[in-house]
Amino acid sequence: MIHTIFFGTNHVAKTVLQALIDAPQISVDLVITQPDKPVGRKKVLTPTQVAILAETYKIPVQKPKTLKNYPIATFPSCQVALLADYGLIIPQAIIDAFPKGILNVHPSLLPKYRGATPVPSAILHGETISGVTIMQVEKRMDAGPIVAQQTYGLAPDEMAHDALMALAKIGADLLVIKLPAYLNDKITLQKQDDAKAIFCNQFTRDDGHVDWNTSTLKIYNQYRALMPWPGIWTMWNETRLKLLHISPALISTHLNNGQVHVESDTLYVGTSDGAVHIHELQLEGKNAIDAKTFVKGCKQIDEAQFS
């Protein structure tokens, strides 16, 4: 039996933890996750998805705000710890507490897209191939030696969240398969080439501002990458207009960049090489509506300009 400790917090971590729980040769003796956080308008303190899952299986859970002064001596005796989508810095002292270190499930083909947003960043940059990496954790972010990798083809219309969930399952299965060989020193670790590293950070709302001077594909990739947060938006009549659902469009009418065109209650906006079809949108401070309703409520929308 492989005894381990698991560090994780969000969507990917929940998928990985479930795979570890389901694996008959693996025992998760402790789960460490982030503290409960206020959720919703009433700010109800809510445990992380990982905490909820662990408690369902009666696995001990700890929720430190930081690992800086964590009492390492209280860890269960384990050769290795496992990590996915945790969100807090792991001090070197904790990494060193495990003879075989800590293995991390990261949803990219490292050294590409080190950091917090690997999947949306890959889509935003027009990647058609992504993947997952199992690597050793070291002090530098996502820079440790690679234990295993598996590629994944991104569909042309695949949204970032859907791709992330697919990669989480692939990574979870890969970890379960490779862990025994890793512990028995049957895997040759691959050093990352730092010269090829690409870093990605958290997105802000400004990253969602659509530039109509770019191509249809680039704008569509921006939508695929940034929904639901921070989403994409444009300006119309000095008001922020959220674009909740869009797709590439093929129309015969030539449109200038950002020019709005209405055809049979269908809303199009010109790009540098074509047009985008707007299906659903939301004016700031208003409810989300479909494009047909929006067009009927805005008599002067045709030939307007988005910016």
Automatic annotation (TrEMBL):
Domain of life: Bacteria
InterPro entries, alphabetized: Fmt, Formyl_trans_C, Formyl_transf_N, Formyl_transf_N_sf, Formyl_transferase-like_C_sf, GART_AS, Met-tRNA-FMT_C, Met-tRNA-FMT_N
Keyword Transferase: yes
EC nos: 2.1.2.9
Annotated binding of (6S)-5,6,7,8-tetrahydrofolate, by residue: 108-111
Catalysed reaction, written as an equation: L-methionyl-tRNA(fMet) + (6R)-10-formyltetrahydrofolate = N-formyl-L-methionyl-tRNA(fMet) + (6S)-5,6,7,8-tetrahydrofolate + H(+)
GO MF annotation list: methionyl-tRNA formyltransferase activity
Domain Formyl transferase N-terminal: 5-170
GO cellular component: cytosol
Alphabetized UniProt keyword annotations: Protein biosynthesis, Transferase
PROSITE patterns documented for this protein: GART (PS00373)
Protein family according to the UniProt entry: Belongs to the Fmt family.
Protein name, as recorded: Methionyl-tRNA formyltransferase
Protein's organism: Candidatus Magasanikbacteria bacterium CG_4_10_14_0_2_um_filter_41_31
Gene: fmt
